[in-house]
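Issue 218. Parser rejects a valid record. Input:
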Amino acid sequence: MDPSSADLGTYGYALAAIAYGAFAVHQVRTGVSGRQRLQALFIACSVATVGWAVAALLDPLSRNTAPAYTALALDLLRYALWYAFLLGLLRPRLEHSDRQSPRFLIPTTVAVLAVSAAALVYRIATGHYEQDGTRTLLSISLSLPLFGLLLVEQLFRNVGEDSRWNAKPLCIGLATIFVFDLYLYAEGALFGRLDPDALTIRGAVHALAVPFLFVTSRRRKDWIRRLQVSRSAAFYSTTLLLVGSYLLFMSAVGYYVRYFGGDWGRGLQLGLLSAGLVVRGLANMVESPGGSLWTREGDGGDYRQSTRWNQPAAEAREPAGSSFVAFLGGEGWVIDVDEFRHAPRRYAPMSLPTWVLASPDLWLVVPLLVGEAEGSELLGFVTLVRPRAPLELNWEVRDLLKTASRQAAGFLAQMHATEALLEARKFEAFNRMSAFVVHDLKNIVTQLSLMMKNAQRLHANPEFQQDMLLTVESSLEKMRRLMLQLREGATPPGGLHGVELAPVLRRLAGLGHARGRAIEVECAEGLATRGLEDRLERVLGHLVHNALDATPADGRVWLRGSRHSGQVKVEVGDTGVGMSEEFVQSKLFRPFSTTKPQGMGIGLYESVQYIREIGGAIDVASQPGQGTVVTVLMPSFDMRAGSDLLAPART
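Output the parser choked on:
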């Protein structure tokens, strides 16, 4: 994961930790009337989520595996707590139902959690991280959000009419969590690896549930006791039908999109899907059957409809300088369209746009403001359709909408920041990839130029002719891979697999032979690591090139492969000019920092980035005038078993 992506994930998980922490503190301070055990479970769910977010936040910053596995364990714990809370709300139906199917919910819950716990133990024992679990492990993880959605459906469809108003925000908030995780693990189960972009924004998306949980707890102090479930209710399986259809669709279309072209939009698409929940969430608070979200086009642009629910598409645009926008941003009022029609002076000097007055179904306009009250910024606004049943728009409803809209605006601002960071990350990745490609082309040109110089005096030598053909063929293959990398992206298709190091080190020794130099090679038998063979050879080749460039003709250059503390150790050493400790500490690993006149300062940077990407580390020991030893530590891989021997070192 590159630095900008890591920063984005850090912000998202930090937001989740702060949001759930504040919500847990609020629940402890306000308390609730009745059903104290369920209230304790409700608070415990928030506390467990805080722990999960903090562990996920610390994971990329840690060099060991503890935060990664702690996050996995706390993720399972919070799912177990949400299950217990939902089953507690469903308890009257489970105890008094005459049907057999509802009674299977408790043993099914135990089975799902037991299998997931066993999978977690297996992950820890075998060194599988959340991102690189097998399809079997990810399929087991898929059962967690699936069963969570099933419980949410049972609750929502079986509460009485009087309780449904209280249950809606709770069900929407939990469905936000479970639906996102369902997408995450469904795609992971199909492709064998979790989407890194989805993982990056997972914390931020889970934080979207907090406003709905907050609204649930604010509607009534005794909201848990008010959630009465019908004792004669039936078991509903719509969730299973919809999820099954979704998985069939994903399996049919997902592979086509991934392998034959197209783009999911990845993080940006996920953010937009989450933004749609803002409209529906605000609409459900006032029983509105539809609405739309209007946001600004770029900096200083007009407002236009960006998301809609049960409303027709609108081509109209609202100028940023109109009195309507100025009123929403300045006053922050919830505009009642019917009230404006009868008493427009209450909203003077504001006038409603034509597109609002032309729609007889529009009922409310809710501003989305971010920032402090005096310096707030109008991020957008939500238009809501008139409810099916009359609803009194009193000051309590207005305050509720204003509070929820502030929360929603904060998450929309976070989503917009996410989009900007994702776009910047794409440009950064392209620029970095271009620099790597140029550096690799420079190495190929250098190799071919050296061959042409030697051809002037060795062109009649049959051995040289054979070496020349092999060199040209190798250079051609490298250029083909570079073209494929430019077309497909930074990571070539095929995924990570076991790489035997002995053949790689022998081929790298040929770099010295092409320059008339001898490279000493020692490698333990059966030494292997996990990665892409051509890229691993390329990054180790950078180290060999640097050693050859820094060493005089009578110096030594060596390659040694061995095992070290359960890892693979590759040592590239030379007796060349060496480097000062200051240069090694402050400049060596920075891109575009080099002491060679014709160097670009990219090779070692690319080597470090890739070795870290596969779970390894690079250490450099050097002294001026004595030489340099570069030590590369990588995960050990058992070629026969096809799995890591030990968990890779985290960086």
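Fixed in the parser; the record now loads. Residues 494-651 form a domain with the Heat Shock Protein 90 fold (CATH 3.30.565.10).
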